[in-house]
């Protein structure tokens, strides 16, 4: 019997953190997508366990951060231990560093096992009710029809899969593998999926990567680490903070505390590099790893009754030469970059690959954006992977050398990397999605002749002076502001959920000033015109905010401006629901509404001037320009979006 | 056929918020308890909708606050509107009050419909897996066997119930009423439950109250209010904050915004008091209520497309003369007090009744505490109800008089009540569970001769000077402190989950000072003695913290004191799990660990002196005394707890 043929806009292979992040986007954007995994269930114990600030922000954009934050270990301190100079058979604390990651955002670094993260994604998908993971499903072959690769309405991908006899379906797919009574064992079922796009999130041994002929570059070292997750019984005083511990004779260990009294130990097993010193990893046991850690910790004792998980890994830094093929097949996560787990970065960077990629795919699949934007995935994420790998080499070097080198100072070392590692410092572009900052060119005339406020005709501040602390290409830093109508204090990021929409942030300035309110009205009148970008890219009949949502944060006192004096475009009316009060916000005017942030000051935005900020669906900053610079915004969107009248219908089956 | 007879330590009748709070305690304390409800499902829309700060703290002690906080409307501002003096057919804003409830705790006042709260309890019970609500179950008769009433090991309560044909069972009890295939309709099944204690949480028309011969006292007025929950379509600018609105001719309305764009309107329908002005409530419709609100709001417009719920109520203030019978049957919530909904207090006070009661029942049922402590329920909660009813009369008066009276100033009016209404200002005792504050008696010699620090022998500070801002009988105010081992910043309340244990909070002071550390060691040595209260009330073989948990918050720098220099009693060892690092905390020493609270300063505790604070399982303060005053703690517990060696076994069936 011929296998049945089905069509799908997007297939995701692999349901680890990277694959599930891709599925979460697909669910939120309402894509016709499939998520396949060859295993029977999610990871139960161990594996990756570190979450950084930016990852928490991203999880929060899907509503998942709080549940994870409640359960996880919160990292607040890192300590260094080194040999006691007076008795080098003992270690002593040489440094105590307060983790400052919370300065970078509203979350801190967490320790929680990968399976819990996966479970939160599974629960999310179930709540949303659009997608579920198809488990026990193997991929058999992958063919690409070259002739169709450049037609983005076509289905050039032909994926043959085999679903095995214990099938999962619908909402119960992720509830585990209960035996269903009276269900007979069936022979494996084959299916051919014709797809427009494919995401390979199938890990370090990626099948997808092999199919498209890519190989990881860079090699493995001979350095082997043992990893154990144990509930330690010890008198080591820093057992509940993360430590980097160097002994004179027994080598090094790193610790990272976790949920439920667990602590992870990374223990260096074999000496560095030398060819003759290979280790028979098949003979290593968790008892051996812990015994070695105990020796390193001397004079402190270490033992355990409960070991949750353990493993051995060999340090290696590898990266794929490309993260995609023809902008139809994309690779994310371990499939394209591997490195040591010492920085707890792996799961984060992997999920961030998908977070970067799938909104772009969603916009292209829906015909909103031009397929060219897919080029930015490789450009943006490969450079992140390369930076990470460079950093990982330095980190491994630091850990190997330990007390004997300049790198001894952990604080200094950590400071070099923490912004990048937190994920908050990651910067994209310039490219089609991030517009190069305008240099200070006060001499140039304004291109906009329609501004009512005559005084602004001759001044044209540079991007940098408009918002000196909003870095182009980075994610927008979040601060607390007030909902204008409710007076509720909310984080700016809470207005930016992951739903695939672009946002135009109107930082309107102090609109209690007549001239500034006039500028805002002019802006809205221009955005409300039939030819404006809001109308060009939004299908007739759809809500005005369905492609680009306009959000306002003004800098006037809430007490001086009534919500209905703001132009209606900023608080759109719905005949069933009334006005939308969740698009207009106020900066905390001279602290009159409590002891919290001054977002304008934090962003470096002048309250008498204001500015426009275009945000990508992943919260990264595309463009900053003046309130009068509607043409710049028009220009930006015209290079990447497709006018709704020119969108092509996708004919299912055209790939046959 | 004779109905089957079963035995239960506790039966809860009614699964509204008060009954579910009782069930939550029973679940957490592992009681043999039943929760019966005559309805098929929880409330779906409308009813109560206000949550105050203390209620959120309580919900948080069961792990439920975050989910509710995320979904609910957060009240930050209250506005008064009154007739425009220049044109009294119009209203104008006369006052804008920033709600300061967040000053009282870490939560703010919320608006969320009762059914969502109930669902959170149902989910909680399901997660815990010990209890579920038995729905569609009617109570038929209640008899009390007088001879057994004073024997607290006996089962004097005989409750006959009838379970109807669509039954619910186990974990699926609260999943709604799916039809189970092939389940035949059965005739109602009767059962006789012999119980030790009964909680009647069956509302304003309480069947339980009638059975024990109690009647509410106080009457209903002739003032009728209409209530609608609508998604308003309006140009009234304060529609998303809570308003008290008085018009000259059309009367008054109050508004309270809610989740999902809803706003509740309370609209006065009939004029005050006059006998001749009775209203035919059967003819009122939601359209009429909204029409009236719209007239009051003039010149603003009001209409709706979606009405979520509506009702009519007649203002009345009533209270039962007693909240219990023979310390075996207890009434909570609307069963013993009713008042107007104007303060959004009802659901809060009702849940707080159960929160006050059921840990006491749990301790008596388990034999840990003497039955006498049950007297405090009536004493503590009836006085709260009476205060609330007095306040409600003033509030109704204020709303009726509106603009025409001294009560015009909402801010001033609100300020009088906000601490009480928030629930944070509720104060219990003095009684057997709250020890009267010691007056300043510096002249009296110390009763304790064992203190190592000679200098403290002659000084004996009063309770007030030991902790000048910890009010006896009130709930302990929560501030941020550091976990000593993890450096994590946590709220003190997070250490006080609702699990039925007493806590001794050791505010150890600056133990980096040798003398202060010596005082702490002496304290621990005394508490560790075989005759100490920790041993007297804790069964042999049970964990040392199973009845009274000792928690330490010291005021030394975390950097100057190693966790293992704290006495082991404060971080007990477990042979499988190692040391317990979640009992030792540090005050933020001179702000060295970040920009957050100085809990000692907030509590008015001297860092060179410290003190002991005994906390009830409901977080209320029983006793404050000096670090050397172990006898006072002994004395306190000896009056209310039963030494474990004298605890009686409960013989099931002895009530027959």
UniProtKB/TrEMBL annotation, chains A, B:
Residues in FAD-binding domain copies: 9-390
Pfam families in UniProt: FAD_binding_3, Phe_hydrox_dim
GO molecular function, one term: oxidoreductase activity, acting on paired donors, with incorporation or reduction of molecular oxygen, NAD(P)H as one donor, and incorporation of one atom of oxygen
Family note: Belongs to the PheA/TfdB FAD monooxygenase family.
Polar residues bias spans: 445-466
Protein name, per record: Phenol 2-monooxygenase
InterPro entries: FAD-bd (IPR002938), FAD/NAD-bd_sf (IPR036188), Phe_hydrox_C_dim_dom (IPR012941), PHOX_C_sf (IPR038220), RIFMO-like (IPR050641), Thioredoxin-like_sf (IPR036249)
Coiled-coil spans in chain: none
Domain (Phenol hydroxylase-like C-terminal dimerisation): residue spans on this chain: 426-644
Region (Disordered), start-end ranges: 437-467
Ligase as UniProt keyword: no
Keywords for the protein's UniProt record, in alphabetical order: FAD, Flavoprotein, Oxidoreductase
Key word Flavoprotein present: yes
SUPFAM superfamilies xrefs: FAD-linked reductases, C-terminal domain, FAD/NAD(P)-binding domain, Thioredoxin-like
